[in-house]
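ok so for the tutorial part 2 we go from a plain amino acid sequence to predicted structure tokens. step 1 is just haveing the sequence, like this:
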Amino acid sequence: MLEEMSGQVESEMCILCEQAHVVEERREIDFRQHTDKGEVTCRVAVQFNVCPQCGFEYWDDHAEAALDEAVRQAYAKLA
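step 2 — the prediction. this is what the tokens look like for a chain of 79 residues:
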């Protein structure tokens, strides 16, 4: 069961410490990626899972796919 908490969502147990439920936080990330056509700069919003107990932060496969898609779109704009 997911419960909203001031813009955040409580969900699964922390995969590192297994002592607390992680809080999902949406964050915007700026990053650069080197490609065979040169470097691309991307900005994408992804969901992080943050443990309030141990501080461990990680993202899931959906976030990874969003990063990949941002690189693909930026790559397509290169000459």
